Amino acid sequence: MLLQQNWVSPHWAWQSLGKPFLLFVFLILQTADLEARRGHQFVWKTGHWGRCIGDCGWGGVRSRAVWCTHAEGWTTFHANCEQQDKPESQRSCFKVCDWHLELFEWEVSGWDRCGLVPAAGAEAGAEPCVTAQHGLQRRSVRCLQKLNRTVVPSEICEHFSPQPPAEQACLVPCPRDCVVSEFSGWSRCGPGCARGLQHRTRAVLAPPLYGGAPCPNLTESRPCGGSACPLGEEQHTYSLRLGPWGQCRLPQPKDAELAARTTLDSSSDSAEQSASAIPGSPPQGLAAEVEIGHQSREVWCVRSDGEHVALSLCLQEPVPVTSRPCVMPQDCSTSEWSPWSPCSGSCGWGSPLAGLRSRRRSVRSVAVGAGAPCPPLEEREACAAGGKAPLQPCPRFAWRTSEWKACQVSLLLDQQDPQQQQQQQQQQQAGLCGGGIQSRVVYCAQIAAEPGTQRPQEVARPVDGKLCQGPAPAASQVCHLPCLAECAVSSWSPWGPCLPESCQHRHGGRGFRMRQRQVMVDPVGTLAGCPHLVESIPCEDARCHEWQVSEGSCVTQRGRCGPGHRVLKAVCTSRTGEEVAHHLCSELPHPEVVACEVPCARDCVVSEWSPWSPCSHSCSSRNAEGTQSRSRSILALPAEGGKACPPEQALQEQRACNEHPCVHFFWEVSPWSSCSQDVLGTALNTTLSWSGDATCGVGIQTRKVFCRRSSSGQVTPKRCPESIRPEAVRPCLLPCRKDCVVTLFSEWTPCPTACQPGNATAVKQSRYRIILQDSANGGQACPDTLYEERECEDVPICPVYRWKSQRWSRCVLVPGQSEACGHGLQARAVTCVSEQGGSAAVGDCVRWAGAAPALVQDCLVPCKDDCTFTPWSKFTACSSACGTTRSRRRSLTGRSRKRDKCQNTEVYPQVETEPCPCEAVTSQPHGNWSDCILREAPSPPRPGAAGECGRGVRLRAIACQDSAGAPVEPARCSPSGYIEEPCTVPCPFDCQLSDWSGWSPCSSSCGPGVRVRSRWLKEKPYNGGRACPKLDLKNQVHEAVPCYSECNQYSWEVGPWSPCRINDEGNSLHCGEGMQTRKVRCVSTAEDHGMESVPNSLCNQAEVPETEQKCSLYCPSECAVSDWGQWSPCPQVCDPNVMQTRTRQVLRSPGSSKPCPEDSQMKPCILNQNCFQYHYNLTGWSGCQLGANATCGRGERRRLLSCRRSDGATVSMQLCQQLQLEKPVPTSSRCEVGCAVDCQLSPWSAWSQCSHSCGTGGQMVRGRSVLLRAAGEGRACPQQLTQHRSCPVKPCYSWLLGPWSPCSVQGGQCGDGLQVRNLTCVVHDASVSATSKPVENALCGELPSKENVLQLPCSVPCPGDCHLTEWSEWSSCELTCISGRSLETAGRQSRSRAFVVQSAEHRGSCSGQHVETRPCSGGKCYEYLWQSSPWRDNVRAVWCQRSDGVNVTGGCPLRTKPAEVRHCSPACRKPFSYCTQRGVCGCERGYTEVMRSNGLLDYCVKVPGLEDKKADVKTIAGKNKPVNSKMHDIFKGWSIQPFNPDGKLKVWVYGVSAGGFFIIVFLIFTSYLMCKKTKQHQSPPPQQKPLTLAYDGDIDM
Length: 1597
Description:
Helix content is 7%, strand content 31%. Strands 15-13-102-101-100 form a five-stranded antiparallel β-sheet, with no helix packed on it. A five-stranded mixed β-sheet has the order 20-19-17-90-93. Strands 38, 39, 40 and 41 form a four-stranded antiparallel β-sheet that branches.
């Protein structure tokens, strides 16, 4: 039961939990599957990197966006993507700022050669190239820092300019095979019956290009013809073959006694040292340990067929040397490297840029023999800063300038001719002004401010101008100096009324009358200022206000006439005419009523008083008093019993006026003092720094003020009005105190780092500084020292080391010889010693004393049979004459005197003769004449004014030669090396004009006009002088300036009308109409002229007043009226509908009923008749007017303002001012007259070094630069800014290498040998056609190369050897071209060496051929075309030919090669047919062709009887063709042969011909008879109408 229960429980558990468990497992698996899928469905995406932000340099940061996306493209949360694969979103970068532009640049290399680009999907069977193929060429593009050319990230340069492309498409020509020349002729075969090979060669003309086929074999060989030699009768030649020299080895121990000869004498007493010194470790100071050994070589005998035979068949006299002494090779030994020097990088731009460091090693022993030479003794490498401290920013450099100096007009005047300068100086003693020139100092400065900081810039120190990039700022410019202008004032106004000082007092008292004037032109640059503008006169009874009294009409007491009274009306007014309160005036004027009288009908009538005339004088003096008058006239005569007229004296009244004396007073002031510091304003004052932005303090100015009388000096101040007293103190801006500003001292010029000789003069170093701002206004003065100099300290003195050579050792021979004689080697010890004589290291002598002397030399130990001589004697003395010789002698010694062979002077000369040196020299001119070189003036007349004209010299170099024609030093012919010739550079002469004439009067008396002056031509310019201004036909130039004449300065003054004079003398009543006159004169209204008369022509003639007019004298009892009053004014805008009126009053009523005349008149306001309008008028702008002492610069142009009436007349300005019209502005403006500035040049630089150190063609050059460009009409800059002259021809000494000798096998006929060439010191003049003359070797100095340059191992081929030929000549220079256009600037040329096979048995041992190609210039484009010969038996020759006519192999495209064998198409398959030379099928001999209509052969027909002759060609139509080929085959054996075998016609042919003839005649006759018989039986046709047919094109017609 228990078991059952236990079993059931798991079963129940499974039943209840199994399904959820399975579901859980399923979900786990699904989750894992989703996780696995998610790894492939979600990926990280990134955006582009953004701009670098942050601080300048490497402190920047750039960012980019990073997001997670599904494979289908939508964006999701970052958590869905693998976090460990998340790309970075930020990274550090180099932040580029604008000032980096000066530090970095793109470096672009040249384009590489165009290379083929494999096309995508290109197949092997692609179409062949026709002209060219697509290619790609590349170049390197790098961003570099300019300072040390270090590569930096490209993003830095891309900030300023886009990166240049690094690739571009190009064309690659089609592949071209190697091009070789034609074969040479076959070499000759040897004599005899021995069979050999003969060969021929060809050369490479152009290498294979662009994948073309390689070069073919350059050699062809073939066996020589002829029969083989019979056995045992071969004819051979034998050659001695020498092998190469073996390695040098020391003698064996058995030759110890000979080895002792290798020791060196390194001491003064020739003590021998052991030869067993350790190699590479010589004693202290010894250049090298020299060991002499020996080397040997093998000798063979070679037969002509290449076989080695017994040596005895080749031995000869003398026997070749097989052993010789040699120097054991020792490599150069050096010390260990020294430690690295500190890194030279001392600055950077925020990144550890690379610097340089170096290390050295010294020589311990020099190379001996064939040992390896010394390696480089100094090594440099790039290095970093070390990383301990950040590098300071690298200095930057920029152009800086001082302040502009004062403007100098004299610099412009100095450019003119001296005569004009003198005139200018005479005319302009008052002071120069206008245009001038100012200069400043331009220098290159090191900018010390750190990048990115905004601290104030300090004054930088000057550095070498080569460090600054870009053009330098201008050092001079045109400037303007203001012209002095005197103060101009207007004329005085009329005297004003008597006014008190103050209007506080109502009653009269002491006062002043005043008049004013205005400033018309403000003063410029003058201390005097303007004169006084107000004058006053003391007066009494001064009032601020006064009564204005007006009279009313006369009111009779009774009736219409008779006595009456007038009521006075008084109004209190101010001085300006305004009505004010009555209490401001004094008591009312008395009486208030004035008596009057109205004439009765019989009374005399008198007019009203006229206004008072102007005062005759402005003041009163002892001789003149001012008066004014008024008058009245009789209008009507009285009747009997009426009141009589007053006497004539009663018609005039006079009164005194301007009674004040002619003495006026004014305030006079002294000039203002300079602005001085006020005690109260001291704290405000500052000093102006170099930045120029500080404000200056406030000070005060004072002046003296005193009252002055016009006729005498100073008076008491009470005489002048206190209210207008000028101020004596005023505030002012203190002139800014400017301290002198100088740059820092430049760096000391570097002292030499290289050591100096001990006897050299002391080396000095200097520094300087530049004044940027001069001191002013009490600022700190400039220092006296601007240049400092001192001697260099601790200048290294070059140590003195020298090589000390010991005596040569004994001659060392080859060991093992029977006789100790012959050629050998001897050595010597060379040590390094110091200046004091002590031993020194070898490296010191190598460094300071140069290469070590020779350690080994050849020597000769004479053998018993050799000839021995005494040393050569000295050469005999030479005479002074040229062409003589000198000689030296030697003599035989010992047994040689008895040997006959030694007496042979041709082999053993005992006297040597050579020509004596000749001191005679000749010179000849060389090259062209130089430019005319002016003599330098001791001091230029002005800055930049180098001598431009005058007398000078021109030079021509000379070539000096000795009597043999060899060049020598030119100083032997001429001290200067030149031929000198005087020359002249013509000076420019400017246009000469006369002085200006005086100004003409103003052309207008009223309003604007012009004043004119002129000058005329005196002399025209030449030689590039300044041109003349534009002249008129009279060669004059005019200048006009505007002027203005006041319209009211002259006016007409009229006197009173005379009494009316009756015209009719018979008139007893003396009344009625008459005439009256008055005086008219022109007077000046100026104050100082006092109404004096002037010529009438000065007044306006159009406005002359009438001098007479009609008048009426009323008769008794007639109605008497007054004169007409003034016309009422018209409106400002004239309107004819508006009437103008005037009135008059009835003065006496008529005694009868006769009415009075009209008392009013009216007329319309008509424009330009009685109504006028006014407007301001402006003239055109005048020319630019300069100051009196200015010739150019800033000026003023003006236009004048006038008042113009509507009828065109110019009237007084007061009329426009009264209407308060708006004035047009401006009436003046600034202008500028361009200055004629001559080009300014710097002084000539010093002559440069000669471009050639020796020889012909050398040039010396000097130059100058433009300091200031020409402007205006100034003289232009000359085109010649450089001058050249030829250098004296100095002799050139050089080592001349002779040609290589043929390969010499000493003592043998073939094998290894030597090629040698000579090295000779020659002198020449370096010209193309120069001939070299040998001279002493000492003149050429140190040898340029080692012995291996003078000797080269070589080999002479032995019989049977395979060897290379000599190099062929370089081929012509060829360019790579497409369709005749070159793809490159440099071409290429080739040469080759072919191998020659002398024996067929040794063909396998031959090495390959050699080809060399090099670039060349001046190449040509060549074309390669196929050429062919005429056909001959369907065969022709086809070859490739270059466009210059050279036949070649290769170069022509094979796809266009013409056929060499001609074939018929279609092929000739008919029986008895063959292909003819014309390329068509023909028949064999004895057969005739039957052709188709298309010209092709159909079949061949056998000619009967002609077995051996070819039938004629016949062409038949297709219908004559046999029915089928079977019938043709049946009858092909049958044929009619008309010819006999001998070629004659057979007899039956003649019979057939005769029978045929008779048959033809018979047929003709029969036809004739039949035609005739038919004609006789024919009847005539019936008559028919004519029918006209029109052919319509139908064929049926």
